[in-house]
Amino acid sequence: MYSDLLHALPDVFAWTNFAAVVIGVIAGIVVGAMPGLSATMAISVLVPFTFGLEPLVALGLMAGIYNGAMYGGAIPAVLLRIPGTPAAVATTFDGYPMAQKGEGGFALQVAVVSSSIGGIASAFALMLLAPPLSKVTLLFGPSEVFWVAVFGLASIIFLLGGNPIKGLISACFGVFVSVIGSDPIYGNDRFTFGQLELLDGINIVILLVGLYALPPVIDLLETPLKTDGVNSSKLGTEPIWKALPRMNYWKTWLRGSFLGIWIGILPGAGGSMAAFMSYNEARRTSKHPETWGEGEPEGVAAAEVANNADTASALIPALTLGIPGTAVAAVMLGGLLVHGLQPGPMLFRDNPDIVFGFMWQFLFGAILLVLLGGSLATNSFARLLNLPRPLLGSVIIVLMLIGVYSINGRMFDVYLMLGFGAIGWVMDRLKFPLPPVVLGLILGGFAEENLRLALRIGRGDPMVLFQNTTSLILVALTVAVVVGPTLKKRFIDSRKKA
Amino acid sequence: MLNIFKKTAIAGAMILSAGAALAEYPEEPIEVIVGYSAGGGTDVMARTAAPFIEKYLGDGASLVVKNMPGASGQIGVTEAANADPDGYTLGTFNLPGMMARTIDREAGYDRDSFTYLANVVNDPNVIVTSKESGLDTLDKLLEEAKANPLAVTVGMSSLGGDDHFALIKLQQATDTEYTIVPFKGSAPARTALLGGHVAMGILNISEVAEFQDQLNVLGVATDERSQFAPDLPTFKEQGLDLVNGSMRGFIAPAGLPEDVQAKLIDAFSQLSDDQEFLDAMAATANPVEVVTGEEFKQLTSDLYDLANGVWQTTPWN
Amino acid sequence: MPESRNSRLTRPETLTAGGIIVVAAGFLVPTYDLRAISALLPAAMLIGLIVLSAFLLLADQRKASAGEDATPMTTSPKRVIGAFLMIVSYALACDFVGFYISTAVTIPLVAWTFGYRSPVGLLIATVIVVGTIWAIFDFGMSQDFPTGRLWGR
Asked: In this predicted model, what pLDDT tens digit does every residue of C44-77 receive, in sequence order?
């Protein structure tokens, strides 16, 4: 297998194939950086176009876009508090406060270095460990996946913000939105009111663009003369080699990479969950958790390393089993089918040069990210924010429409996005936290589907949920994460009193 | 009001141009509406077939694939059913799904809404069991199912699809009962089988071809062995009359002018002898079985009756 | 001085909480037609929303009786409503009139209305944005945007 890996290398360096990766990374960063445009949308627009391309050119483009966009999403997350992609939501927590403090340039550098590290780790996992890791995926049947979802949902309690009631309302809202569509088992309609467009559920990108991009646009238009926004003169950028020594986040990078890779190989949950979990874990183990959320660079590192660490690893179950680990990987799987690459164990035997070449492209995409991403972000994108605010606002409006329309090619989604936008604006003004909505939407329906599948397998007996070690470990982890911090606090309090 | 005007205008234009246009059909690009996103099985079929159809239509014909994903293909097929029947809008069609949806929900079309051009792909069902289940022959499976009704869990993709109908046929033919576990799509169902989380699965031959070493494939639901995997025995060989599959083809709105219909059907019927096309389809895991015109219509009608019969006795939602 | 009864009820949080309760209750109605297992999660979430909003409402009213002023949602409601209306009309225009025309009109219109008045800047920005979108999506990717329902096909 490893000789196949080396054998595939020369093809990757054929100039068209390599150029595809470079173009892909740049395009990905641009797409990710545009509020409203997402990687999912970019790759689904690209797939029909790749029919006429050589496989490695097409796959190189996709690998590049995926890597680029997962970092690109951090740029507006830091500068405008608009996550450019769903996975960049956790990047806003500390990235935006950093930008307000005049450390936006450093935040972007942390993001690009962390993204690249996550991407490289993930690419290595894909190249070297795909077959064994796909065995891990097989351990997760419906009941285990249900517990993974519960574990993710439990982390909502750390995202509730200052007012837990509002946080819980956000979470309930997110979970409720996740059940709209057809019932996961019977296929009957739930809250679709006869609209076929709602039958497949509400795409996360639609909700995200509405909730996260519309309120800031209204802000831009509401007080156009306000000049306290972030602009490039206040970015505080220094050359990246000077910034590098300040980044001492090895533990966070390591943990985030591991979490990202692990979440990636589990079907369905995807990048945003990885970023949330990595952020929570990094904060929980931090020596000074109180600085988190106020502009702690390590928070940016934690989120960004994890959301890139699941890019290549999400392809492990996609390539070996046909079940994509993230929404973007699902679209890419389509791109692979177009080129006659059927997922399965035979794939590695039948088309080794293409499959392993594709893996190399992931690795080079991640490495290129540091070279291309750093300067592109700080030199060009940040300058866009010097645009007059009303102009910036109107351009973002157009991008939002394009991004949402292009997912399925229909205006219905745009109207839906505007509806979420109105809700998002009210939530923003009344300080309802948005992250619980996102996690609720991602994990709510996912948890329900797997719970009900598990119950069917157990023919209604709930004990099926506790029948094996993997499930029990996950239950224990969830309990530890939820109860752990409270116990720790009690312990510290009681020692203080004593 | 505007609408009536528009319709009259279109009708007028059609009458005026009818003689000339139809003789030279196609003189503008033909749009093929695919009800799934780019990269799905149906989309790949449409895009693979398009250049061959262009070739057989001749005269520089051009086919443009347009994806209208959503609601398991229903949005796209409804759009195709309601398009102008001028031969410039075609659609892809999936069986038994498209017919089953007219039964289990309200649909904006029925079986008379279409001009049936050709069914191109027939992906037969297979019954597989997980290695861990130990049920490595059809006899062992049936024995277990008879001894313990409902004890065998069956992973498959959604209710009301070809997998589900295959299971119902199996239950009726063998007088057995199973616990259905409907996953969202066949890849998750197959993964659950590989992991041993369900004992048995009903999938399609293209979906298991790559996994024959990791699963027990008990048989194929065809009359004769599939070219796609000639080493797999049919159920008929094993004394079980079970024939079922998932089909994908092309339709146009009802009321297509006869010469246009004839020209299209002629082009589609040449696909089955085109080795280049067959190879391209095999590479994308689409087992070809071309059925055109009246036969395709009859096939659809039969499947509708089957689905309707099932729905009357055991509705699935 | 305690607020008048009327203004107590129009506090933003009170209104929002009330709105959530009404909407969630409305969504509860269709759950009766669903199978029990299918209705379980949505109904639980809706009831959760109702109960939580009731708490929120009570908390806000308690603040009101304590004489705490509610922070207004916005200081310039006209601008906010205007911005919303413009965005919605832009979406409608794309749907009915067509994407490229609407975009070419909307960018300068919105920017001008909300305070950016340089004609040259507006022209350049509009040309760059519309041109880039056309070059990438239409020319490069043959991706169609709405052409306008009013014109038929």
From this structure: 999 999 999 999 999 999 888 887 777 777 778 8
Backbone angles phi, psi at A325, to 5 degrees: -85, -20
| B64 and chain A in contact, CB less than 8 A | no
Helix (H, G, I), strand (E, B) or coil at A189: strand
Q: Which of C:79-138 have CB within 8 Å of A? A: 79-80, 82-84, 87-88, 90-91, 94-95, 99, 103, 106-116, 121-122, 125, 129, 133, 137
Calpha distance A89→A307 (Å, rounded)? 10
pTM, two decimals, is: 0.86
For chain A, which residues score pLDDT lower than 70? 1, 224-238, 268-271, 375-379, 382, 385, 496-498
Distance from the Cα of A20 to chain C's closest Cα (Å) equals 15
Q: What residues contact residue C103 under an 8 Å CB cut-off, 6+ apart?
A: A398, C90, C94, C129, C130, C133
Q: Which residues share a beta bridge with B67?
A: B34
Q: Which CATH superfamily is domain B2-122+246-313 in?
A: Bordetella uptake gene, domain 1 (3.40.190.150)
CB C152 within 8 A of CB C100: no
Tell me the pairing of strands B30-34 and B63-67.
parallel
Q: Are residues C54 and C104 in the same domain?
A: no
pLDDT tens digits, C72-121: 777 788 889 999 999 999 999 999 999 999 999 999 999 988 888 888 98
Q: Answer yes or no: do A397 and C110 touch at CB < 8 A.
A: yes
Cβ separation A169–C145 shorter than 8 A: no
Where does chain C show beta strands of DSSP type E? Answer: none
Interface touch A187/B159, C-beta < 8 Å: yes
Q: Which residues of C fall within a CB distance of 8 Å from A44?
A: none
Cα(C123)–Cα(C136) distance, integer angstroms: 20
Distance in angstroms (rounded) separating the CA atoms of residues A205 and A35: 11
Which parts of B201-242 fold into alpha helices (H)?
205-208
Residue C130 sits in which domain range?
77-151
H-type helices in A409-468, by residue range?
411-429, 435-457
Selected residues 286-315 of chain A with any CB under 8 Å from a CB in chain B: none
What would the pLDDT profile of A303-356 be if each residue is shown by its tens digit? Answer: 999 988 988 888 888 888 888 777 788 888 888 877 878 787 778 777 888 888
Domain B124-244 is found in CATH 2.102.10.10: no
Phi, psi of A312 (to 5 degrees): -70, -35
